[in-house]
Amino acid sequence: LLTDTEGLSTTHLTVADKDGMVVSYTLTIESTGGSGIVVPGYGFILNNELTDFDSQTPHPNVPESGKRPRSSMAPTIAVATDGSVFAFGSPGGSTIITTVLNLAVNAIDFDMDLEDVIAAPRISQRNGGVTQVDQGFEQSALGQALTAYGHQLSPVDELGAATGIFITPSGQMSAVA
Ligand code: GLU
Description:
Layout: E1 11-16, E2 22-27, E3 76-79, E4 85-89, H1 95-109, H2 114-119, E5 123-124, E6 130-134, H3 141-148, E7 152-156, E8 163-167, E9 173-176
Parallel strand pairs: 6-7
Antiparallel strand pairs: 1-2, 3-4, 4-8, 5-6, 8-9
């Protein structure tokens, strides 16, 4: 059962060829079916990304002529000084930003294996009163410690749908979704 309206339609692809060339690609037309309008003669559907504007003024993200709405998409390729490469990303609307940060911290700061980087429970605090967490995280020692500090943890069905590829300096690749 999907209870969150974000992240239902966007996809993140991470691909690499045998030479280690990588692409990190978040693709979206916002909602499933986008605007529902197909361009005559071309056959592709127009997006409905205008929903990424914030209609409440005053706000820097209000719809105005010549403006593009805020986007959270963050396809990422990180290259280390030893030549290793970590390419990754996720759908999830505004939770993309925190998912990508979660993945980067797990990989770069905690030096976790790629499978653990992707599988680790994620948390998403986006300047609101409530912090979304992967189900079960709120029961963990860390979750309970955060609750004791006054954080309101709200378990959700899904935070992102991350994919990533790690390439060692010698060219060995691992891919996890
Ligand atoms: N339209 C969203 C954005 O650009 C991405 C859509 C999604 O991931 O759900 O932030």
